[in-house]
Please model this.
Amino acid sequence: MASSVALPSQANTAALPKRLLSLIPGLLLLTAVGYAGKFIEQSITAYKAAHHIVGPNIEYVLWAILIGLVISNTVGVPRVFQAGVATYEFWLKAGIVLLGSRFLIGDLLRLGGISLGLIAIEIALALTVTHLIGRAFGLSPKLTSLLAVGSSICGVSAIIAAQGAIDAEEKDASVAITAILALGAISLFSFPLIGHTLHFSDHAFGLWAGLAVDNTAEATATGALYSDAAGKIAVLAKTARNATIGFIVLGYAIYWASRGQAQAIGNKAAFLWKKFPKFVLGFLLISTLATIGFFGNAHAAKGAPLSPQLVAIANLSRWAFLLTFAGVGLRTSLRELGKQGWRPFVVSALGEIFIALLTLGLVYGADRVFHL
Amino acid sequence: MAEKTPEAALRRGLSTDAWAVLIAVALALLVRYHVIGAIPW
Model:
């Protein structure tokens, strides 16, 4: 995820009202697409109940993404909507911060700890394998570095963070981002099918989606497509993965600087802070407040219902994610994907398949040991 | 060298992360203090 595409960044205060106005058409489009997805799901559910039809439920998440995909790949998204559609990233991060209310610190430490352990193994192996495949296909070393960072950590935001740090070309970053987004879209549809086939629990599937799907929006959507609970765990695992961006990018920056092909990093602590995704701190803050009872009873497992405040905050998070899922479809252009050439795509795809299988094995093992 | 006062930060604009945290926390507080009531889904 880019760090400043949504709300009026780099704007002076005088231009703020104009900038906010320019977001309105796209925001209305996101709302319409998201709500249409929700409406279709509810209508189908009501029809099936009325006619006693039994069948799988297709979640609003998939409908919202599909409607967005159809619009962006047929009529396209006109320029007037584009600024507002780009706010999907803001809604994603706000949704994640609000979702913090549904995690108690104890759960965070346990699941976050397991996730971080698995992430360390995944990143080490994924970086190695992507580099080997990139070399075999004759990609430039910096493009391979970008693909490796994107597929092992956090998709688009990691690629953008790494591009600046290793002085990679804009074109390479664009190719890497396109390849990662294309594979994220494929994961969205394939992972839930695999999860159902293997009878994964909600926790195990959420952990797998969070570890293996690259972009945060797609990882969240993939988890939510499986179940609400899986969506929550996918966000947690992905957020833990995002928190490692700074360290990996710093490692690459030091490597390329040592070869004289990037600027040396002066203050490493400041570099890590700059690259750290700050919304993770918001997520932890809300989770801490929920744990100390600031929003009322958060211990639903103890028998008493959740406080109305926590239910309201959780629903705000769902609305924010609804806009995010609409944005995922609206910004995925299959035509753009076709223009980037096949080699980066094949390298990423092979890397992704490796990561998906590796993390599948890791999650399966963790499920046996920790009973997720 | 860039100014580091809050006013300068405001002129430059906040990052998406900062906006997301600010608005999400503000919404949570509004719910907590009953300014916003039940949110249907």
About this structure: Residues 129 and 351 of chain A are 7 Å apart (CA to CA).
